[in-house]
Amino acid sequence: MKNNALMILDGGMGRELKRRGAPFRQPEWSALAMMEAPEIVRQVHDDYIQSGAQLITTNSYALVPFHLSEEVFKEQGLSLAQRSGDVARKAADASSTPVKVAGSLAPLFGSYRADLFEAEKVEALATPLIQGLEPYVDLWLSETQSLIAEPVAVKAVIDKLSSSKKPFWVSFTLEDSLAIEEPVLRSGETVVDAVKAMHTSGADAVLFNCCQPEVIEKALLVAKETFAELGQPDFPLGAYANAFPPQPKDAKANENVSALRDDLDPSDYLGWAKEWQKAGASLIGGCCGIGPEHIAVLSQELS
After folding, report:
1. At what angle do helices 292-301 and 38-50 cross, to 10 degrees?
2. What's the half-sphere exposure (Cβ side, CA atoms, 13 Å) at 255?
3. For position 163, what pLDDT does the model report?
4. CA dist list (Å): 283 to 2, 10, 93, 177, 208
5. What 3-state DSSP class applies to 185?
6. Beta pairing partners, 239
7. Which of 204, 220, 261, 267 is the most core-located residue (most Cβ within 10 A)?
8. Is the pTM of this model over 0.90?
9. What's the pLDDT at 75?
C-alpha cells in the first residue's frame, strides 16, 4: 500500500453502542453487547460501511480480563473473540464494495495503563483472542498501545501461532498534553523510539489513536521523518482520534464514562483529518465518540 492511497477506517464502537441503547456498562464496556446483543454490533458495522468505511474493526477491544474479569475471560474469551470476528466478517462480506476486517487486539492490561504491563502474561492473554479472530480477519490491529513492549510481544505471539502472515498494524495512544515539545506515548517513551521499534519488529503500518486530535499531527510528522531516515519514506501511517477532553496523566479506564467534547462535529473532525493527511496519514478514521456521521464526511471529502 502506497502512502498516497487513502483508506477510510471506521469510527468508535463502544460509545456508538451506548448511543444506540445497547447493553452497556462498566467494566464490560463494548464487550457486553458482544455477549448480549451482537445484532446491534452488526448494525454498527453496517452503518460504518454505509458511511464509506473501507476497513471495519472487530468488536474485541474489551475482550480482556481487565473488562470481563479473569473468570469470564477464561470461560468465554475464545468464543467471544470468534463471535466478534464472525459478526464483522459477515458485515464486510455483505458489502457491495470491498471492505477489510481488522482484528482488534487491545491493551491486554487496560487502556492507558503502561504501568500494569506484565510481559510474562502476554502469551496467555493474547492466544485465545488471536485464535478466535484468525479465521475472520484480514489484518491485525494492535491498538491504543501505551508502550512499545506490548505490541512487540503480541506480534511475537501472532508469529508463533499463525502461519498466514497477515499484515500487523500498531496504533499508539499519545500523551494528551499540548505543552510537550516532542510527542510521546502515555508511557513517556518517544514516538521516534516507538517507530524504530516497529520498524525492527516488522510492523506493516503505524497509527495514532485514542488521544486528542490536536496532538496527532506532530506525531505523524515525526513518524514520517523517522521512517524516511530508516529508508521507508512511503511507510503507511494513520490516525483516528477520540472525542474526549484531554485525559490527565493518571487517567484510568473503567473509572467512569467520559464526557464528549462539543467541538468535534463531523466538519470539525474533517479539519483535523485534512491536517493528518497533509502530514502523511493514509489510514484515517475515528475512535471513541467519532461515529458514522463523521466517517461519512471523511469518505466524501478526503481524496
Report:
1. 20
2. 11
3. 87
4. 11, 10, 21, 24, 10
5. strand
6. 208, 284
7. 220
8. yes
9. 98
